[in-house]
Write a structure and sequence with these properties.
This protein has about 160 residues and is an alpha/beta fold. It is built from 6 helices and 5 strands, in the order βαβααβαβααβ. The chain has one domain: Rossmann fold (3-Layer(aba) Sandwich), CATH 3.40.50.620. It is found in: Cytoplasm.
């Protein structure tokens, strides 16, 4: 195992995923890449036409810079996460699109040997209706996945 891809989202508990994934990669002597996915980014720049007499989107004049601002925030997030690991060899990758597909596509392109993800606690109903990124990746992956539980701590 020479390449470990660590998926991060904006959940505050992603720090645990980054730390534990990085520690595992170090033990394996593997290269590390942190990936974050901006899902459905194109939605923010859409200027919808009038429909059913509703002109709200046109009147609001959707800011066309929103997409580039979202990308910049995500890049800063990834850079900060990489700095936190204090290893200049850690690389980052910002993907766009459906999260599970984007992670699997980049894992294949980068030739990752292992994908590290956090599993958030969701309600059973939420999992049934929409699934989770981790479960979608597990269904379609051709490489091993290491899951780190990041449930809310109960006090």
């Amino acid at each position: 195992m020479k390449k470990v891809l660590i998926g991060l989202d904006y959940n505050p508990r992603s720090e645990k995923v980054a730390n534990q994934g990085y520690e595992l990669a170090k033990k394996l002597g593997a290269e590390v890449c942190l990936i974050h996915v901006l899902a459905d980014v194109s939605y923010y720049g859409v200027n919808y036409p009038n429909f059913m007499g509703y002109e709200g989107y046109n009147e609001m004049q959707v800011d066309l810079n929103v997409i580039s601002e979202l990308r910049e925030v995500a890049r800063n997030y990834l850079e900060t996460a990489a700095k936190h690991l204090d290893d200049p060899r850690v690389s980052t990758y910002l993907a766009e699109g459906p999260t599970s597909t984007a992670i699997l596509d980049y894992a294949k392109k980068w030739k990752a040997d292992l994908i590290v993800l956090g599993t958030h606690s969701h309600s059973v109903l939420e999992k049934v209706l929409m699934g989770t990124t981790a479960s979608r990746i597990l269904e379609r992956t051709e490489i091993p996945v290491y899951l780190i539980p990041v449930k809310k701590e109960s006090h």
